[in-house]
Structure formats: structure tokens, C-alpha cells
Amino acid sequence: MGHSADPLSCVFELISCIQVNKRSRLGVLIRKPIPMASYMIRKAKPEDCVDIVGFIKELAEYQCMLDQVDMTPAKLEADAFCTEPFVNLLVAVCSKSNQTVGYSSFSYTYGSWKGRTVYMDDLYVSPQHRGAGLGTSLMQAVAKSAVERGCNRMNWIVLSWNTRPKELYARMGADNLSEKEGWQSISLFQDNLELFADKLGANPKILFDL
Fold first, then answer.
1. How confident is the model at residue 7 (pLDDT cuts 50, 70, 90)?
2. Which residue range is the domain that position 168 belongs to?
3. Where does the pLDDT of residue 36 fall: very low under 50, low under 70, confident under 90, or very high at 90 and above?
4. Into how many domains does the chain fold?
5. pTM above 0.90, yes or no
6. pLDDT at 111
7. What is the pLDDT of residues 11-32, one digit of tens each?
8. Which residues partner with 123 through β-bridges?
9. What pLDDT, in 10s, does the model give residues 116-138?
10. Residue 175 and residue 120: Cα distance in Å, rounded?
């Protein structure tokens, strides 16, 4: 987003109504100043991947898991901007500095109980830009995209010790399924995933046509 050319840092809207001047009886258009928005949330572009990966590492460091991150800008760009993207990315941009200050990443999945689902993997705002509602707005943008795609559920995870966002999520009306239903998140990472996949076909009683 470029800087405004207006030295007053605001844009003007022409009001359609006409005010009649009592002396001249001539119509005049009123110009009403509208403050410029502080931030813009938009779909990410390939050139945003460098900033996003920087945020990914900042978030992982806050979560004390930086050693687990092997994401690179090239890898993220390949996965997000291919013919069938694996991930969708939104960024928040500061209007004054034109700098990217936050992001969210999400993908569409499917649940056998509810059908179309969106999973939000990451949500992050730079510390110096928190408190302006960017986190909530990024989540709302993900939710809006999900509704437009016909999803009826939005999932994400949060660390058990990170109490502040959990309180926010509860006020939003979100359910903590770990507490409510006892669900736990399970993952197979690359090495074990490949070992497990390599065992396909080891059972002679089962044939595959995939």
C-alpha cells in the first residue's frame, strides 16, 4: 500500500447531498474528512513469504519451539502459490510504514461429522502492533473466507499455558474441545511418517488400488 499524497493524512469523500447557501442560493458540495485506516489486511503475495517466514520463527521462538522450524521462503512460496495451494496466507500491512506486521495461515479440510472445515494453523502480530485489533481482524478474515467456501467449522490449536488467547477465544464463543470432549492432537512427523507409509502392502491379506 502506498503513502497518501494528502499532507493531512486523510482522504475526502464527496457527499451527494447539496447544501443551499442562504445568500447566493447556490449549491455547494461538502467535503467530509475521513481518517485513513491504520492497517490493511490482504491476501499474501509471493514476495511476502520472506516476512511471513520471519514471523513464523518469531512465533516459534515465543512458543519455545524454534528448533523445530525448517520452513524457508522458497518452500512456503512453492506450497502457497502453486496450482493447488496447500496453504492460504493473509497479511496485515501498516499503512504508515507499508511494512508487513502480522499474518495468518489456514487451509481447508473435511470432517466426517460436519463436512467442510477450515483449519487456522498460525496467527501472529508483531508485538509493537498489538492492541489495535489486528489479531481479531485476521481471525475474522479467515472466518469470512471459510463461510464463503461453505465451511461450518473453524479449528485451531493453542498451547495449554497460553491462557490469554484462550480467554479471548471463549469470549468469541469458541469451544475448547480438549476440555469439553477430551480430544488430543496427534502427529506423525516426517521420518516416522515415511517409515509408516513404506509399510503399505506388508499385509498379504490386503490389496490396494490407489
1. very low
2. 39-183
3. low
4. 1
5. no
6. 95
7. 333 333 334 344 444 445 445 5
8. 104
9. 999 999 999 999 999 999 999 99
10. 15
Distances (CA, A) of 197 to 70, 175, 190, 192: 22, 33, 10, 8
Task: Establish how many alpha carbons lie within 13 A of residue 111's alpha carbon, considering only the half-sphere containing its beta carbon.
Answer: 12
Is 169 designated active site?
yes
Least confident stretch, 12-26, 52-66, 142-156, 178-192: 12-26
Select from 155, 157, 137 the least CA-distant residue to 146: 155
Asked whether residue 73 is assigned to any structural domain, the reply reads yes
Give the strand pairing for 154-155 and 115-125: parallel
Given the DSSP bridges, would you call strands 10-20 and 39-43 parallel, antiparallel or unpaired?
unpaired
Look at residue 29 and tell me if it is in a domain.
no
pLDDT value of residue 132: 94
Catalytic pick from 39, 119, 124, 169? 169
Report which residue type is found at 160.
Answer: S
C-alpha cell belonging to residue 81: 502459490
Calpha distance 84→46 (Å, rounded): 15
Write the CATH number for 89: 3.40.630.30
Angle at 202 between CA 201 and CA 204, to 5 degrees: 85
- Could you tell me which of 104, 72, 107 has the C-alpha nearest to residue 89? 104
Environment class of 100 (CB within 10 Å of its CB; exposed 0-12, middle 13-18, buried 19+): buried
